[in-house]
């Protein structure tokens, strides 16, 4: 079962004392170096790795490099790319990311979820607008379901939430 499921959590953990490369390779021990590097590239890790003298061989932790929350998230996504599961669970996977990392995570998610069953738990609307079906949960129960477009076409709780979110984003201090 676990070979077919990949999970990305809100606060993923990386193993201290081993390299970024080795942290990703844990997802598939028999992977070639080329496969690991490709997974890191797909997760957009190449955009921050040049900050480190040893690149992907940089050791994570107190005696090595420290990664931001968004960078840790990207390394954990690289693991899922390498594992290549049939089902992916994204549990608030971009919640801790800053705006720059969130954008890169969203780009990586689009590639990651292609041709897979994906369960995405999210509060950020940017994470879910393009999904096939949204389940709007309130008090532990599914109260609405449909695509973003379908849910916006009638007076739904989802639509009220989207409108409130958008009006809050338009508000600016003078």
Please give the structural blueprint.
Layout: E1 5-8, H1 20-25, H2 33-42, H3 69-83, E2 87-91, H4 99-112, E3 117-121, H5 125-128, E4 134-138, E5 141-146, H6 148-152, H7 157-170
Parallel strand pairs: 1-2, 2-3
Antiparallel strand pairs: 4-5
Overview of this protein structure:
With 174 residues, the chain is α/β, with parallel strands linked by helices. It contains seven helices and five strands. Helix 3 runs parallel beside helix 4. The chain has a three-stranded parallel beta sheet with strand order 1-2-3, covered by helices on one side. Strands 4-5 form a two-stranded antiparallel sheet. The chain has helices at residues 20-25, 33-42, 69-83, 99-112, 125-128, 148-152, 157-170; strands spanning 5-8, 87-91, 117-121, 134-138, 141-146.
Name the overall outline. Answer: elongated
Query: What multimeric state do the chains show?
Result: single chain
Mean pLDDT: 87
Walk across the major sheet and give the strand order.
Answer: 1-2-3
Portion of residues in helices? 25-40%
Strand content: 5-15%
How many strand units?
A: 5
Instruction: Profile the largest sheet.
Output: 3 strands, parallel
Low-confidence stretches: none
Q: Give the termini distance in whole angstroms.
A: 54 Å
Query: Structural class of the secondary elements?
Result: alpha/beta
């Amino acid at each position: 079962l676990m070979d077919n499921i990949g999970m990305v959590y809100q606060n993923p953990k990386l193993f201290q004392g081993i390299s970024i490369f080795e942290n990703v390779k844990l997802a598939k021990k028999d992977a070639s170096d080329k496969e690991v590097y490709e997974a890191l590239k797909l997760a957009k890790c190449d955009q921050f790795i040049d900050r480190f003298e040893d690149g992907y061989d940089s050791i994570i932790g107190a005696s090595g490099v420290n990664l931001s929350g968004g960078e840790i998230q990207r390394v954990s996504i690289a693991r899922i790319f390498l594992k290549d599961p049939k089902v992916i669970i994204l549990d608030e996977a971009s919640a801790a990311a800053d705006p720059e990392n969130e954008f890169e995570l969203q780009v990586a998610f689009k590639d990651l979820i292609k041709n897979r069953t994906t369960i995405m738990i999210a509060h950020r609307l940017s994470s879910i607008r393009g999904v096939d079906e949204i389940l709007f949960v309130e008090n532990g129960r599914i109260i609405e379901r449909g695509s973003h477009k379908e849910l916006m076409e009638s007076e739904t709780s989802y639509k009220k939430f989207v409108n409130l979110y958008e009006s809050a984003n338009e508000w600016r201090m003078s």
